[in-house]
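Local shape tokens:
==================
===
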Amino acid sequence: MSEDLKSTDEGPKKPDKFLIGPGFGLFLMGLIYLVWWLIFSVEYIFGPMGDVRWAHNWAYAIIIMTVGAAWYHKSVISRTIAVVQAFMLPVTASGSFDTFIMTYITIGIGAAWGITVALERMRGKMFLQERLQRRTWLWICMHTVVVSWILIAHMGLVFFLGRVPFENQLIGLGPYVGFLAHLPPELTELATWTFDITLIIWALIVLYDQFKLGYNVKNKPWPRRSFWMVLVCMGSSLIALWIQAAIFGI
């Protein structure tokens, strides 16, 4: 990394907006995720047999979209906001708060991120760019996005470590006990298991790629495996959903 920093005196470069990498993959995932749950919200959330607890998927989608978009805008403020947004994912996944409230919060943070990016582009320079040393700037920009990816992976980690071991016990006590007050039972949801497993694999891949590329001040092309893993994640989850519908009729 230190050699990369010495190789050029130019300021931070913007990633190619057409570059296929972790940012594009995450943004695409979040967008499809959001559209999917907006389409089926009438049936699964607001319908006669719906459950408002499924609204947590809106928050997930908005968080993933924001973090994906933040990869394309390399600034300290925008990526710090992205970390705050990503932190909302394990908070939402824990079931500690009403998921409608969490959705409103993620919309607000996403709007703050968008306004920040718009202002920086209108100004023609990034906030704090002149106040921070270049090494500090690059360090913050890289590590904030790394932390965001780790927090994204917590969708699966919280599910497997914080929900799966306790869900049956809570159901035995009542349908709305503990995290079930804000999250629906998903122990038998094949699509949830598949999505969370593949999302954790995606996180491991993208973190490895980031480690290999370092600060990437030369803006080298990213390996595309993280993007393809996003497609695997979404595709395998759809297959799992179809299998579940075929076997269990749900």
In short: The chain has one domain: 2-7+19-248. The radius of gyration is 19 Å.
